[in-house]
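For the sake of transparency, this paper describes our internal protein records without simplification. Such a record has a labelled line for the sequence and another for the backbone structure tokens. Nothing more is needed to write down the fold, since each code stands for a local backbone conformation. For reference, a complete record is included directly beneath this paragraph.
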Amino acid sequence: MGVERGIEGLRRILEGVRFPVTRDTLIDTALEAGADEEIVSALRAAPAAEYNEPNEVLRAVPLPDTEPGAHTESARARERDRRT
């Protein structure tokens, strides 16, 4: 497996995760799966919580607004706030 990058890389990593899972376990899993620093940093910035399913993680992880297809719910909200 190569280096995992962006939202698609995070989705691939989450496919192998047994839920529920803590943020710290997600970080360890991402590192073991070869995630790039961007994914690891985004996971570290997510709330320290227990996640019950992949979509919870995807909503919580602050991926960069500039990456096509990487817009999380929180990123879209920030973008809306900037426009108003």
Remarks:
- The chain has one domain: 6-83.
- Residues 6-83 form one domain.
- The helical segments are 6-15, 23-32, 37-45, 54-60, 73-83.
- The radius of gyration is 12 Å.
